[in-house]
Amino acid sequence: MRKWMCVATVLWGITSPAMADDRQLIEVPDQIKTIFLEEMRGHLDNLNEITLAISAGDFDNAAFVAETKMGFGHSLDVVLRSYGLPEPEIEKLVTQLSADNPGLDHMGLDQFLPTDAQALATEFHKAALNFAKVARSVELPTTAEEYQKVFTALSETIDVCSACHSTFKVE
After folding, report:
1. String of b and e for 113-147 (b: at least 16 CB within 10 Å)?
2. In the chain, what percentage of residues exceed pLDDT 90?
3. How high does pLDDT run on average in the chain?
4. Both ends of the chain: CA-CA distance in Å?
5. 30 pLDDT band (50/70/90 cuts)?
6. Is the separation of the CB atoms in 95 and 73 below 8 Å?
7. Is the Cα torsion angle 40, 42, 43, 45 positive or negative in sign?
8. N or C: which terminus of the chain carries fewer CB neighbours within 10 A?
9. What angle in degrees, to the nearest 10, is found between the helix axes of 74-82 and 59-70?
10. What was the pLDDT predicted at 12?
11. What average pLDDT does the segment 90-98 reach?
């Protein structure tokens, strides 16, 4: 037992400096932190929903999730849907407002983000909308090349998530 404790202590001493979290801290008020982290976890759920839709060959649904839950103005989109606005009106309003107000995308959470994080958030929304465009272009029967295009576009979205989470942390 003592031998294992010595080995564990040595390994911890060797690896702990390498495991230091050197990501940039984003400090937000506690109530905002909860909303912000829920938003990030929601995007993970959205990515899961998208991959399930792709695996079922439902590219329109995958695109719909990306547009309505991850695109510019996605939070506004959800609220407008809850009020029963027709799809064309929602799309027009979200597009118009988002073009003039990028901070709209995270329910005003962008005001707490450093400029680099805001830029990554914008890239995330652009990548999600690009994915939706690619997914909507798939024709049936689906070819291997079309699947490759869809997964490449999805990977570009996930790459932005990874870049942001590798660079920043919220406490």
Report:
1. beeebbebbebbbebbbbbbebbeebeeeeeeebe
2. 47
3. 82
4. 37
5. confident
6. yes
7. positive
8. N
9. 100
10. 55
11. 63
**Per-residue pLDDT tens digits for 148-158:** 999 999 999 99
* Long-range contacts at 137-144 (CB < 8 A, ≥ 24 apart): 138/59, 140/57, 142/57, 142/59
Those residues whose C-beta lies under 8 Å from the C-beta of residue 90, and which sit 6 or more positions away, are 77, 80, 81
CA atoms 127, 54, 64, 83: torsion sign: negative
In tens, the pLDDT along 47-79 reads: 999 999 999 999 999 999 998 899 876 666 665
What does pTM read for this prediction? 0.73
